[in-house]
Amino acid sequence: MKRQQGSKGKGKPSGRGSGNARSTSYARGNAPIKKNNPSQKKSSNPDEIRLNKYVANSGMCSRREADVHIATGLVSVNGKVITEMGYKVKIGDEVRYDGARINPEKKAYVLLNKPKGFATTTSEGKGRTVMDLVANATSSRIKPIGRLGRNSKGLLLFTNDDAIAAKFTNSKNGVARLFHIELDKNLKLEDLKKIQEGFKIDGKLITVEEISYIDGASKKEIGLKIKNTGNTIIRSIFEYVKYEIISLDCVAIGHLTKKDIPRGSWKHLTEQELNTLKML
Fold first, then answer.
1. Residue-range definition of the domain harbouring residue 151
2. HSE-up (13 A, CA, CB side) for residue 136
3. pLDDT digit string (tens) for 41-99?
4. Alpha helices in the chain (DSSP H)
5. Residue 269: CB partners within 8 Å, gap ≥ 6?
6. Beta-carbon neighbour count of residue 127 at 10 Å?
7. What is the mean pLDDT of residues 142-160?
8. For the domain that residue 57 is a member of, what is the CATH number?
9. How many domains does the chain contain in total?
10. Among 203, 208, 218, which Cα is nearest to 238's?
11. Using CA atoms, how far apart are residues 43 and 134, in angstroms rounded to an integer?
12. pTM, two decimal places
């Protein structure tokens, strides 16, 4: 389109050399170039996250509310109170809100019915592990609570909830697990009573919640309820009374059972199961 020319001295200023900024026109290709502000560059480290987002992702509050909590000194990172806005943390850092540790991931609770042949470890290079079995269960970084040996089987609970995990670490007030155990020979009644009464191994008192023969089975098959989270203590108990464990199967964790969980499969805890577990 042809530009209309105004009369001399009466036309609007073209903007060239004019001090009137509002009448300045930027044609395509002549727009002002924005200078990069180094302080506004995003972190190139994908493992880092802004502290307010970390707190908000934990479910404690919104990101805006997290800013307020940070400013008032309620948030610490690796033991140091942080009040700086925009502070970045790594996913593996220990972040606490009002003294309690928080996690930026969604809480997950996965119950696995472990088969034989899988090591209970999160380390790589250990052959087949239980982490391979729950790899598709959740994107949250869950870990097994307690341990079942490679040749042991049964229930194993995974979570990223530190409060739930802590329930299992106390041998007195923890969550009891029930095992079906097969021995290399019949368990004598006096040995069963000795285990029930408790005894010391290397100066440490070893106690169980319950021990009994399995109804309708030989006296090689034993039911044992214990609050300790490792299976090495169970083997130590029977080694002490001169028996060898042939098979060890965790059939219940507190109120959780293997019902509807085939061997090698897993499920997410229901809200009711989780609430009951929290009350134990």
1. 109-170+257-279
2. 3
3. 444 576 788 999 888 888 778 889 999 999 999 999 999 999 998 999 987 899 999 88
4. 51-57, 63-71, 130-133, 162-167, 189-197, 232-240, 271-279
5. 109, 110, 111, 256, 277
6. 11
7. 94
8. 3.10.290.10
9. 3
10. 208
11. 32
12. 0.70
